Amino acid sequence: PCSLHIDHRNRGMRTRLGCLSHKSDSYNDFTAILPDKPNRALKRLSTEEAMRWADSFDVLLSHKYGLAAFRAFLKTEFSEENLEFWLACEDFKKTRSAAKLAAKAQRIFEEFIDVQAPREVNIDFQTRELTRRNMQEPSLSCFDQAQGKVHSLMEKDSYPRFLRSKIYTDLLSQTQRRLS
Questions:
Q1: How far apart are CA 47 and CA 171, in angstroms?
Q2: RGS domain: which residues (predicted)?
Q3: Is there a contact between 46 and 108 (Cβ–Cβ < 8 Å)?
Q4: Domain that holds residue 54
């Protein structure tokens, strides 16, 4: 099983490295995934709004276009599963139906938490095990610790790189150019 695990990872890494040549940390990546038509979105986005994303990670996450830009950036780093997991948890916490709760929790666990999950997030063994135990009786808070770890990882690691990225700097200069 160990050699298979390593082989699986290596194959995934080769695939990811193969994709690197097709990815670029550029302004175009951002416009491709904007919530609505890129040009209309950019006309609506003010330089002040985009600059506020640098105030705090949560300000960035709470802004529709900030979220889109951050997602585009994470795609260039092949780590968008962190944001997707965080968003899935945010959505999960709004679940009002007890009937849907367990099924939704299971889906999130299988997609992001379980070892070898298709979009496995980077969390420590203790957090993974705690979350596994929480799954025995799923509640709205069963992913809180894992979500907190992933939020913290993105805030300390990806967010500062995003603020220095070409995606963000191009976006700022684009909004400023519109004003001149």
A1: 9
A2: 56-172
A3: no
A4: 47-177
Given this model, what pLDDT does residue 65 score? Answer: 92
The CA radius of gyration of the chain, in Å to the nearest whole number, is: 18
Inside any domain, residue 28: no
**How many Cβ atoms from other residues are within 10 Å of residue 47's Cβ?**
16
pLDDT of 2? 39
At what angle are helices 144-153 and 80-92 packed, to 10 degrees?
140
| Look-up of token digits 């009786």 | 137
- C-alpha dist (Å) from residue 114 to 111, 121, 130, 139: 7, 9, 12, 18
pTM over 0.90: no
Selection from 159, 132, 136, 158 nearest residue 145 by Cα: 132
What is the tens place of the pLDDT at every residue in 90-144?
Answer: 999 999 998 899 999 999 999 999 999 999 999 999 999 999 999 999 999 999 9
